[in-house]
Design brief:
Strand content: 15-25%
Number of helices: 6
Order of helices and strands: HEEEHHEHEEEEHH
Structural class: alpha+beta
Length: about 220
């Protein structure tokens, strides 16, 4: 059960942030990298509201191809508030991932980890709920700050809150805006960067996230038609 109010969610976030689960790292060459994406009705802007329809998809990729996929439909439980994303759609990605026939070794999602007011963004929170290593990948940080890395593929630069490094910028290809990489549940920064780099296929966004986003949008379009 996901928290249903801000006070309850804040308490859970602090509890998870204080945990120290054993770190995960790939133990074999072929790993299943999952991606999860939720989308809302076209034209929806601003923070949204409780009850907004949602289409969520998850995929697992291994050796460059999708080996499992699942889509779900549901509704947002609240409007979006920075630092409280789990109130809006925490249950949506959980349902989508639990529906996969093959469990991924690690999951990518559009959310932060330690770059968060209480050190527990949805990437970390969902990983704890699923007991699954997670990595957040976002277009920009939430609270952290740091200069962009050099303009070459694979270059990184730290993202910090005060003196604490909570993630990094990663240049996925030269000439493209870097992505913010967030260590989530059981993933340190080096592992997070390694997983994201492994999931790239010459594009700016990792393939599992692209695949999940495409699947979620197709589900939305099918319902609209």
């Amino acid at each position: 059960m996901w928290p249903t109010d801000e006070e309850q969610l804040a308490a859970v976030q602090l509890e998870i942030a204080a945990m120290a689960p054993p770190p995960w790292s790939p133990t074999r060459d072929r790993i299943g990298i999952g991606g999860c994406w939720a989308c809302f009705p076209r034209g929806l802007s601003g923070p949204g509201a409780a009850g907004d329809p949602a289409w969520t998809a998850s995929v697992v990729m291994a050796s460059g191809r999708i080996v499992a996929r699942h889509t779900t439909t549901g509704a947002a439980a609240a409007a979006y508030t920075p630092g409280l994303l789990a109130l809006r759609d925490g249950a949506l990605p959980e349902d989508a991932v639990r529906g996969l026939a093959d469990r991924p070794d690690v999951l990518l999602l559009d959310a932060t980890g330690r770059d968060h007011p209480r050190g527990c963004g949805l990437a970390t929170h969902l990983g704890a709920v699923l007991d699954l290593p997670t990595v957040g990948v976002t277009h920009r940080p939430l609270l952290a700050r740091g200069d962009w890395p050099a303009d070459r593929q694979g270059a990184t630069a730290p993202l910090r809150i005060d003196d604490a490094m909570v993630g990094c910028w990663l240049r996925t290809r030269a000439g493209a805006r870097p992505l913010a990489v967030h260590p989530g549940w059981r993933a340190d920064l080096d592992t997070a960067v390694g997983v994201v780099s492994l999931a790239l296929a010459g594009r700016r966004t990792p393939e599992p996230l692209r695949g999940a986003r495409r699947l979620a949008r197709r589900s939305r379009a099918a319902d609209a038609g």
